[in-house]
Amino acid sequence: MHIGVGSWDYGMIRDDNGNWINPGKGHGKHAATTENAKRYIDFAAQHNITGLLVEGWNTGWEHWIGFEDREGVFDFVTPYPDYDLEEV
């Protein structure tokens, strides 16, 4: 969906020292958006593809990279602001 172009997380960026930080806003590379998901769902339907996995729509990805303790970081019911779960 976004190899080399997008990101799972909504806002993590690297600072000048290479450390992961969360600036508290989207970085513009988040690929699991409502628009992208609907586009890929339509593509799958047109080509008789019966399944599609969309990852990265839920909050918590900010703590996946660069953190040793990853237990319980994901919230599987709360989407990022650019993903409308009900619409998709």
Comma- or semicolon-separated keywords:
Glycosyl_hydrolase_97; 88 residues; little secondary structure; 1 helix
Characterise the protein shown here.
By secondary structure, the chain is mostly loops. It has one domain (1-88). The protein is 15% helix and 5% strand. The protein contains 1 helix and 2 strands; from the N terminus they run E-E-H. It has one helix at 34-46, and strands at residues 13-14, 20-21. A two-stranded antiparallel sheet has the order 1-2. A hairpin with a 5-residue loop joins strand 1 and strand 2. The longest helix is centred in the middle third of the chain and has 13 residues, at 34-46.
Structural topology:
Layout: E1 13-14, E2 20-21, H1 34-46
Antiparallel strand pairs: 1-2
TL;DR?
It comes from Cyprideis torosa. With 88 residues, the protein is low in regular secondary structure.
Distance between the termini: 16 Å
Number of helix segments?
1
Biggest β-sheet strands, sense, barrel = 2 strands, antiparallel
Structural class: little secondary structure
Strands, count? 2
Assess the beta-strand content as a share of residues: under 5%
Overall body shape: elongated
- SSE sequence, one letter per element: EEH
Give the averaged pLDDT, no decimals.
79
* Strand neighbour order, sheet with most strands: 1-2
Cα radius of gyration in angstroms: 14 Å
The helix fraction, in percent, is 10-25%
Give the count of structural domains: 1
Low-confidence runs of at least 5 consecutive residues: none
InterPro entries: Aldolase_TIM, GH97_catalytic, Glycosyl_hydrolase_97
Domain Glycosyl-hydrolase 97 catalytic: 25-88
Protein name: Glycosyl-hydrolase 97 catalytic domain-containing protein
Organism: Cyprideis torosa
